[in-house]
Write a structure and sequence with these properties.
Length: about 280
Amino acid sequence: FIKVALLATAVVSLNTSWLLDDVSVTMATRTAPTQAASTASTAATATDVDNSYGDDNDNGTNSTQSKRNEPKFYEVVVNRTHGTKSDFYYALSCDGKYEENKDKVPTHDDWVDLRRVYNKVMGESNSSLSGPIDGDAFHVPTYIDLHPTMNRGVFAKNFIPNGTRVWTDTYEAEFTTAEQFRMFLINIPRKFACEVLQIWSYYCKMDNVLGMVMVTTLDSSALMNAAAKNIINLVDVVGPDGAYNDLVASRDIEAGEQLLIDYTAFLFRGNHSVFGFAA
């Protein structure tokens, strides 16, 4: 596989005050074929990069090295109806964005703006957000800080007794089609799009009617870190509808302690092809 270095910017400016309607974002990219591929960028295929080099030296020797240093340009187009996860990864220049953003903390206004775009994409009647647009999903005071090894995290501002309801899934944005998710990605600020694509979204099996949906967390709980089951201090509680709706303190949590969760408790091994987000 080839690692792709994205060095251009999209030709379309994104705006959160109104919804872009079926806009194509075309990104010209160039490859760096001598670099090893990272796990996050293994989507490049033989059609993306030409690895066959001819014998064009005057002395008849192969000029492989010089050819490898030449950039290879191609286009990635994403819009309402087209674009896989890999396409968006390239079009949004997500390579290296995690390292770039790992110490940046979204403000409350940022989360509110993302919710507004989601409601615009889905329509108010189809929105899964169940609280006021500017509300907070946490029931206890929290703050965001940087952990020495885990980067951003959510921390308890005050002592939290065992059994306290800490968080409710008020701002989990559900997408039932890939088209909806694409439109959301196209319309949110570029600085958050890569995190939505790679970190803040997950597949969830809802029921026999909805089946599998893509869920994006639109509150600061998206920054909560995971830990082993013997270390976590929050556990999921199943609500009346059979879904994991709340996080409850599984022991006393001291002020200043990081809130940790076991994400495997509710994640569903989704499939991009089934959801329509793959080639």
